[in-house]
Give the backbone structure.
Amino acid sequence: MLVKVGDTCLPGDIVEEAKELADSNKKVIIGPGLRQQNENIVISKSGILKRKHPNTFYVDNYQKRYVPNRGEIVIGAVTAKAGDIFRVDIGASEPASLSYVAFEGATKKNRPDVNVGDVVCAKLLIANRDLEPELVCVDSHGKKGKLGILNDGFLFTCSINLIRKILNPKCNFLELLAKEIAFEMAAGMNGKIWINAKTAKQTIAVGNAILAVEYKTEEEISKLCDDIGNYLAGFA
């Protein structure tokens, strides 16, 4: 079955517009949820077909299991230490590896203080279905930036769709919530969010607000942030 941008698609459907572009010898970039089969671009995941101009196609679908992609920022918990390698649970089919030299300024003599149970924010250096995912806590210049160990705070898991929504530049949820509560947040593309506020009550309020926003409209998001501000101020 041929499908167009905006249609609900199922595995096996053929992307009509991508086929037309390919037939006219134009470059087509296929994103998540699509694969090439002979001369056709075929749907591999159910969802809504979307297009990012000029010629990038992908399927927007509800997903909980994270599939590692190179270059993405992820958050995980250190589960084990084996020699010079840390094992980090990022919610994928297998744990990712994190070397002790993958931190800023780390050497054999100056090792980072990482323990089992610590939460780390890292970037995927290697993400291949045939290889173990590998993480680093530095950028291409060897600087940690906002990567590294996340101290204190609270870590929870949500759907990947929610991560995409709150990180979308068009979504003003975080901006509205920051006006009501002062908090720190790190969101990983693997569906894990770390938050930290002044008190445990505020931290729980921020976490509940993030989980509640997935299916809300802009008006409902604004009201939600106002209600949280009133509750914490003691007016509710």
Observations:
- Helices lie at 16-23, 160-167, 173-180, 200-212, 218-233.
- Residues 72-150 form a domain with the OB fold (Dihydrolipoamide Acetyltransferase, E2P) fold (CATH 2.40.50.140).
- The mean pLDDT is 87.
